[in-house]
Every structure is written in structure tokens, then in C-alpha cells.
Amino acid sequence: VKTDPIRAAFSADGFRATGHELVDRLADYLARATAGAVPVLPAAGPAALAELFPPRFPDPGSPSFGALVARVLEGSNHLHHPRYVGHQVTAPLPEAALAELVSAFLNNSMAVYEMGPVSTAMERSVVLFLASRVGFGAGSGGVLTSGGSAGNLTALLAARQAKAGHDAWTEGAARPLAILVSEQAHYSIARSASIMGLGKKAVFAVPVDAAFKLRPEALEPARRRAESEGRRVIAVVGSACSTATGSFDPLEPIAEFAREHVLWFHVDGAHGAAAALSEKYRGLLRGIERADSVVWDAHKMMLVPSLATAVLFRDDARSYEAFAQEASYLFQGEREWWNVAPRTLECTKRMMSLPLYSVLATRGPAFLGDYVTRMFDLARTFAAALRREPDFEVAVTPEANIVCFRHRAGDDVLQERIRRRILSDGSFYLVQTKLADRVFLRVTLMNPLTTEGDLTQLVETVREAARA
Ligand SMILES: Cc1ncc(COP(=O)(O)O)c(C=O)c1O
To answer: What is the enclosing helix (H) or strand (E) of 163?
Structure first.
């Protein structure tokens, strides 16, 4: 009898064999990466990789999934390497990656309860847990969505509904609107304004102080500027923390300003809301409990794979207004927490809650709180060490786990050259940013396996690259 190849592809025994081999391969990879036995970011550029993964798919395909995975592992950026100190993406806990596999396997797509019963219940629970951690009380809630950018958009849509009325959704706003936000805010705020049709000009940048924190006394002049241009201010956004330097805006005075002017107060806590889990550092978020909405990325500081972002609302009813739309083929009722798609950008979405719920359930919140504390501590230690070196300049004493610094021997071109040299030898992966028009090297300490010793070596590596 001829076997049916499609049916055979679903064989449980075949999956068992491939799956065991894959887990063994990933475990070996994890051992090599965490031991630092691979370059952090392989040197191959885009053209070489395009060549390695060509758009040629012959029939029959090659049965060697393992060989393909080996090439994927080899060519990727190794976030589990202790010397990965780059962008704000976590080295996921292996068990969280396994939970993600379960999600991919079941593919319960969430839009309506019936298509994702367990993940819907878990989503509600993690959202309620996170809401309570930022200090929201009874009646709070929210949703999970695909990343901080989508989260900020969701929150600002709710802000517009709350402050400019339902007409803004159906007719477009009758009067130009405005949002006040620090000049250090993540670009997704301005992007959201454009997506919403408010236009980039609707975003009024509020100046920051020497620590790159929004200056509360600059809010009123920004509001006046917006009003003098005939715009109605609907929202003020605080960053907790900012992307470039990890600075926490002073949320208390921003909350007070929002109250005085009856504005929506949104906190972009994509990176730093996780400080709420740390006994030592939760004070950085003082005032967050007064926000109308908070965005919190679990894939940044909660050790789970991308993407899993919570959009939290102090008043959960507001979350039903962000996307005030009806689709009768999907949603029969209103305000049913168990049907999530009316409240999210996504229709179909991954079982986003699964990795986060499982880490919280199996490790406990204190485990994650300790992780946050450790990384924030390490950044302070690193910055203090840099300050003791006469040839280094630190942009600002870190509040979170982000450190920006420069080698004093040269200008912007030197900093860029240092980074390129380090990347080309694969010893570290670090990034760069511009602060007050000067280029700084930037590290984010995401990987809990990074040690002070690694960072001492980073200082030496930067020196060598400056000399080379
Ligand atoms: C403060 C802040 N907001 C939003 C984002 C965007 O998050 P995502 O990359 O998950 O879309 C980032 C990402 O770095 C961020 O730092």
C-alpha cells in the first residue's frame, strides 16, 4: 500500500523522534551558548545568510529537519550567551520556550473563547495579576497583545475613545487632538498617533532633564503650545522606563497634571513595569497606580519568549472601547471578558498567556522579582566601575538595567567603530544610541548569566577596539 505523505507527516512516532532529537540539539546549544562557546552574533551579513537560506524549495523536500535547525542555530544571535548585552529582548527560560511549543502545537487561536478556552482563562489571570502588581484595584483588567508597540496603540485608542468620544472612531476626530510625551519616549507613541490618523504633529515632545526624565514643569507649556495650535490634548504619556537610558519618568507629578487637566494618563512600562515585581526597585514606579493604562512587555523582563505584552487598564471597561467595532459573525455579546478579540488588535493570536502563566505558576513571582533586582543591581555596579575608569564617560547613573557610555579617546565615529569591531569578532553584542546628539555605546543587561567578570572584560574589549 502506498503511504499518504500528508497523513504520515502527522505520525505521533515521527514527531516523537524528531522532537526528542530537537530537544537534545537545543540542550546542547544551550550548554554551548551559556558557556560562551559561540560568537554572540555570527559575523555573516545579510547577503551570506540569504545565500544560506535561498528561496529554492525543490520537490521532494529534504527530510533533514535537524540539519536545517542546526543552520538556524548557527546563524542566529545568541541571547543565552552571557556576553549578549544588546537590545531589550530576553534570553527566555528554556521551560518558557517549551510552553511556547505547546502553544504552537495546540494553536488555540484565542479570538473567541471557544477557540482558546485555557489560554483565555490564563490571559485573564496573568492580566489581573500584573494589574494588581502595578497597584490597580478592583475593576481593573486588560488584554495581552503582540508587543509594546501594539500595546501603546491599543492604550492610545482607548484614550481617544475616552476623551474625544466615539465619533473619533466612526467619523474621525472633529477637532485636531494632541498627546504629550517625553522627547525620550519610544517611537511607537508617535507611530501610534500616525496610525490613528492624528498625525505625527499631534505628538508634543516634553523636554527632559539631565537624567533623561520628563520635566513635569515642562508639561504645562507643552499643553499650551498644543492648545494654541487649536488642538485638544487628550493624553499624557510617561515612560517607565525610557528605551535609550532606562530612565523612569516622575509618574506622580505626571498623574497630578493629568488629573488637573482631565487627561488620559498612559504609562509605557514596556521595559520597566517589571520593577513592580522587585521589592528593592518598585519605588521607581511610584504613581503608576494612578495611570489609566499601562503597557508591560513580558518578553522584556519576565524571561518569556517574544511576544507577550499586557495592556492594563485601571478601569477594565475602558479596554472594551479601544476597538469599538462590531463583527456579528464573531461576537454576539458585549463586555464578555472571555471573548478577547473585540478588545485586541489581533483577531487570531497565539496562546500568548501560556509561557507567562507557566513561569509564574511554576517558579513564582519572587523568582522574577529577584531576576529584575539582580539585573538592575548589575547595571549600577557596571556604571560605577566605568566611572572609576578615567577613559570612560557614563551618560547617566542607571535606574534600570540599561547603561550608556562612551570611550573618551574619540568622537562619535570612534564609538561606532568600536561597536563594529566588537561585533565583527563576536566577543560581545552591544548596541549604540544617540543622546543629546552624541553617540553612546549602550548595553542592556538582560541575561541573568552575565557576570561582573563579563563586564570587566567588556571594558577591556572596548579599550582594545578603541586602540585597534
Ligand atoms: C519603552 C518602550 N516602549 C515600547 C517598546 C516597543 O516594544 P515592542 O518591541 O515589544 O513592540 C519598547 C521596545 O524597546 C520600549 O523600550
So the answer is: helix 148-164
